[in-house]
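>> received
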Amino acid sequence: MRHKWSVEDDLVAFYLYRCGKNDAPLSFKEVCELLEISENSMRMRIANYRYLDVGKGLSHFSKQTKEVYEKYRDFSEEDLRKVGRNIIERRLTSRKL
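>> returned
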């Protein structure tokens, strides 16, 4: 079954694009597993954000991806980091319960 991207999933992808895969509190593979998204799908979504940001990457993106980009593109790296890490931490906590 195909993964349906949530707004939070998109936000994590945008966070990884802007702040870098190594900035996350988990490895890239672990983040993908936590969100139940394949690593290739996540890489493609990150490439969508790169295209929206600098015109290089994958140009076929969803309406939701563009909306997330438009809403969060002016966030500072620090503020986006808080949003992205908060989603990851919340998902980790709910998984442990």
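>> Residues 49 and 69 are 7 Å apart (CA to CA).
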